[in-house]
Amino acid sequence: MYTVGSVPYLNAKPLVRLFEDLGDQSPVKVIYEVPSLLPPLLESGEADAIMVSSIESLRAPGRRVALGVCIGTQQEVLSVRVFSKVPPTEIRSLALDRSSMTSNALAQIVLHENFGVVPSMEPLPPDLSTMLADHDACVLIGDNGMREEGEGLHILDLGAEWYRLTELPFVWATWMGVESLNSELAGWLWLAEKEGQRRMDAVVADAPAQTRLSFEMCDRYLRHIMHYPLYERELEGLREFGNLIVEHGILPEVYWPELVAPDTSVALSAASSTGPT
């Protein structure tokens, strides 16, 4: 019935596990791409919704966001970090993870607001040694950001730095669409998040092989670091991010998306026939 595009990272696994488990019987097909390659899927009509960097839901009019589900954190994030050869107050050049959008914007905001620096920036492929060869610091996201130990480097967790700045949750990604993101699809996305929590043991068990991270790290990350609800408090954090995007000149203007409430009647009726796998 529907097709969605999702990031391939560990943090999204609980949001799509239901659809993977249902296989050919799933009402939602999932396509995986890095964040920067998801918007073209929506623009071409290949996807009805995409789990996209939150900045994408703010940068143009006419966007819709499914209420109730996001990829978020309440404080630290672990998987979105700045690695620096110098103390943060001395960063003059920053390599950006070219697979990201929101994280790069947040890095600019945090470095300016919390450390008083405005470095020159260059998007590069996500490889720590290559990025730091000619730059003071770099942004790494996703499973790459978690795998790097950064021995001998200064490390900033951008989720923790956002909370230090605002005392608000941070919304890293939302289910975004246009007209094709309707209340029924939002209902399936809502159900998938609930089922992902119920199937978390299986998600965590599969994660080390998929990510090359330890079981302990995957378990902590998915159960205690990730925060998936999208309601008033999270929307307040997203609004503040939008304000700072404009204030720092990252975008000239932002547009608040239409929030699509899930049709839970569809989801709940389906839940009775999607028992644990």
Overall description:
- Helices cover 41% and strands 22% of the residues.
- It has helices at residues 13-22, 39-43, 102-115, 128-133, 142-147, 158-166, 183-198, 200-211, 215-225, 232-247, 264-271, and strands spanning 2-6, 28-32, 49-53, 64-73, 80-84, 93-97, 120-124, 137-141, 154-157, 170-177, 226-227, 258-260.
- It is an alpha/beta fold.
- It folds into two domains: 2-73 and 171-271, D-Maltodextrin-Binding Protein, domain 2 (3-Layer(aba) Sandwich); 80-166, D-Maltodextrin-Binding Protein, domain 2 (3-Layer(aba) Sandwich), CATH 3.40.190.10.
- The protein is globular and about 55 Å long.
- Strands 1, 2, 3, 4, 10, 11 and 12 form a seven-stranded mixed sheet that branches. Strands 7-6-8-5-9 form a five-stranded mixed sheet.
In short:
The chain is α/β, with parallel strands linked by helices and 277 residues long.
